[in-house]
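Pair request: fold both.
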Amino acid sequence: MSTELTMIPPAKPLIGQEERDAVDRVLASGMVAQGPEVAAFEGEFSGALAGGREVVAVNSGTSGQHLGMLALGLGPGDEVIVPSFTFAATANTVAVCGATPVFVEVDPETFTIDPVAVRAAVTERTVGIQPVHLYGHPAPMDQLLAIAQEHGLWVFEDAAQAHGATWRGEQVGTFGDGGMFSLYPTKNMTSGEGGMVSCATPELARQVRLLRNQGMETQYANEVAGFNNRMTDIHAAIGRVQLGKLPAWTETRKQNAAFFDAHLEGVVTPVVAEEASHVYHQYTIRIEGASAVERDGFAAALRQEHLVGCGVYYPTPVHRLATFRTEVELPVTEMLAREVLSLPVHPSISEQDRERIVEAVNTVATAGA
């Protein structure tokens, strides 16, 4: 291995001069808290990624989940159906509302929540469903909305990883009563830190706005007990620049994914449902039949022998974490947690990087065969 090669990172925020100039503009204005940049960002994000729905900017994706479900009335005694194959925040935000996350299976090919499992998990305490558009692949929203309508449930979409993904031609975050997008640095676009809540009704949007700002629309006229979950104008300025770059970045992600689809061998490549448009927040392969130890060995070989960064999202299903340890058996989720491995697919990888990644994966897969 040539010493000239450098590690290909598994993720890489793309921050350029335009973002720096935007921050400088805000600093020079003196309006650094929630001001005109936040309002402009909300409007632009709504038009580009939320189908014109009213969106509310907050200080993180997790805050967006939390406030969105509080605004929907979630509280003690309630149950929300969630996948276990996801980041812990999906369930954490249900729990911090005082409610109970009910964990169900995911589809083994798309990694998204299984509607059959959702239907079977509905009880008299169920109030909502929180699907996750995992890795950039949308959940089957038509089936989930049908279940919700049948049982009188709300749907709140976790679109943290899926900016611009579509299901049957409609953007994620526009199906349910509400939805959340994350703007964390490793996401498909970033504001440095932050989140957006898409809202189906003006009433829900107003409630989220109250909750993010100490329960106030007018200073000192507190209407509810709220939080300080506001986005700053500094972060909004970064987000506005990134939003303009997102379409080209998404196309590059798709091109990188198509290259991997065509050239990777000995691993299971991502499946895209016919109704879906995948935005490849992660390009997640499966080492079919592997134990967690074997998968981790595969990852270590990529990093150490080939300088190809990679990540495991997520090695422990949420229902197995100490915070939620339950007796439910989810064999598909457990299998995926053992087998998945995410490769670099971000827009900054070069054609040479793509070839290196393919050669590395195919070499390690052949060695382990």
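--- second member of the pair ---
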Amino acid sequence: MSPMIPVGKPLLGEEERAAVDRVLRSGMIAQGPEVAAFETEFAEALVAGRRCVAVGSGTAGLHLGLLAAGVGPGDEVVVPSFTFAATANAVALTGATPVFADIDPVTYCLDPAAAEAAVTPRTVGIMPVHLYGHPADMTALGAVAQRHGLALFEDAAQAHGATWRGSPVGSFGRFGMFSLYPTKNMTAGEGGMVSAADEDLARAVRLLRNQGMERRYENEVVGFNCRMTDLHAAIGRVQLGRLPEWTERRQKNAAFLDDNLHGVVTPTVVDGATHVYHQYTVRVPGDRDAFVAALAEHGVGSGVYYPVPVHRLASFGLDLDLPVTERAAREVVSLPVHPGLTEAELEQVVSAVNAVAGAGA
């Protein structure tokens, strides 16, 4: 039997090795010139020149961004429950309360009407997730925020290069956060990047990531150690340069799947959106677990993101009426779409999905 086709695959090669060797030879391994260069290049390439601050993880980026924006105890931030736990965790870590709202059934992103219904006098912000690489409706969410005097924050962990009505994600809210974890569309090995709307917020994130100081031993606030190393930044710089090529391949792979899959509900890209397909997520009929198991028997890996809505995790333990979220959590499966796929592997994915869906697994 041929090897299992993985649902995701980080692409790391000789360029990344050379970049790491360059840093090791330099002797400057902690936050230094590679980090500064990466921040500048990321800003120019992905967020229309907004100020960018590199941090140690995506979760740290959300946490520090919220703290820098003044979110804290007594506040509420509206978030989706159909996402990775880090979205809500970051809010809770500030001392604020994440308030969960339902999602749009087509894009899987935060539903603007549901977000507005969740607003209370304690609400200070709305934080949509550009899930699976599809942007949230930032026009409608921006209108909700404006009507209620709220801030917008963007969890763009999965959406490097996605756009909404011609503008890149990460350029709408007070800040945006991009994850650089190994499974993302580009990686630094680990890390996150915060795009800030203004210099005051960017400086606050820089202080918070480095024990509250920009100059050594001149601590201005109580901060954290959330720095990115030059080793990680060097990898990220190489990956950033290859991101446009990889995004195009993801989109071409998705188009092939769109044209050839049967028996499942394929992703929809709404008008005004550019989807970068961090995941290619379908809805399946019948028993989702049986579907996943049958795909594996055909040598095709898959992923279920996310089988338990965040509000129902033990860490939050809430009983809420979020029917669209609950249905998605029962039905979705993500298929291989990454740029490392060969034509033969894409055809194998199609053949497996169509056979399993046709058999009613």
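Observation on the second member. The longest strand covers residues 51-55.
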